[in-house]
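Late entry, written up from scratch paper. The run itself happened at the end of the previous shift, but nothing got recorded in the book at the time, so transcribing now.
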Amino acid sequence: MQPFRFFFHYTKGQRKGIVALLLLIIIAQVAYFVVTSRNWQNETEQSAEQQEWLALQTEIDTLKARQAKSAYKIYPFNPNYITDYKGYVLGMSSAEIDRLHKFRETKKYVNSAEEFQEVTKVSDSLLESIAPYFKFPSWVKNKKGSKNTKIYPFNPNYISDYKAKLIGLSKQELARIRKFRKTNKYINSARDFQEVTRISDSRLKKIAPYFKFPDWVTERQNKTVEIYPFNPNYISDYKAQLIGLSPKELQRIRDFRSKNKYVNSAEEFQAVTKVSDSLLKAISPYFKFPDWVNNKNNATVLDINKATADQLTAIYGIGPVYSKRILERREQLGAYVSMEQMDDFDFRDYSPGTNNELKKRFAVMGQPQVITININTASLNKLSSFPYFDKTIAANIIAKREAQGKINNIEELTKINGFPVEKEKIIALYLEF
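Output as recorded:
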């Protein structure tokens, strides 16, 4: 079978026409290629702007080649002042640059490559490549490089961040001493400093020689200042410093005195000022009270069940109102059976030491003649009038005795809801079963 058999179906004239058409198409394609591939403009026909660009092209290509071959040159710089562009050139990310800028906004500085990495969190590889270009001020180098930095005497109550680093104090230890100072207290010895900061004995031994306290503290430590007896109701600022009283403790005694009240014993002084036991022990031998106070403090112990209103009001903190309440309660009970019953009275508006002073000056003597109540026969009103029962407890007692016929002992009473169990022993002395 001939492959071009179909071609011979046409006439001879038709076949010539087809061949001519194909040749024409081929010639047109070749002509189009030749025309489009050739720049028909000569140099004189080109525009002046095109000529200028073409003249510079060689130089531009040369500069591009040089830039590709040469790396960006980094000059020594202070890492505390890195611009966004500088950080980008160094290879830092936007987050790392922002961390440094945020750190610098707190008025702080990085003084070493390690601190720079700690702040920015750059990788070890990046730090290794840029750290050789870090340039810190000379005073930073001197502080880091010199182990013989001179430490001048200083008051340990006022330690700056730089001083803390210099003596090797940690941030936590420095925070402790600053928290202590916010309470308006002062460190007056090396031992005080150790107690507050909790540093080791070896470190204290190294830095204690540089401590410099005020003269009055040094004099007190050396026991060169003599303390004369004084009335603790009248303490001057100097006297307070001399005996180690803090400004807050001094203010408490002055606030107390502004109410026309007085402390008449070492115990009352401690109750008002809240000084420690150790400080009270050290200064109380110098307390000098008026003679009438000493006579009152040295008075013999009296029977609380025979005490008069005048004898009760002689106790500081017990005025006419409280003395009347104590006497009325005694009449209601017949007698007190224990000085613990003084805890039933509210002396909180007065000196906290009033109750202790009352128990020191009075006691229950002999066999008190109390008024007893028969728990199985007493009426609701009788039970309710008993100081240790209210109407609810009285009603519960009557309900219990009616339910079981009789209450036999105090233990059965303690099972009643609301019964004051903590006063069971005292209440039992006033009841009959």
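The longest strand covers residues 302-303.
(Scratch paper discarded after transcription.)
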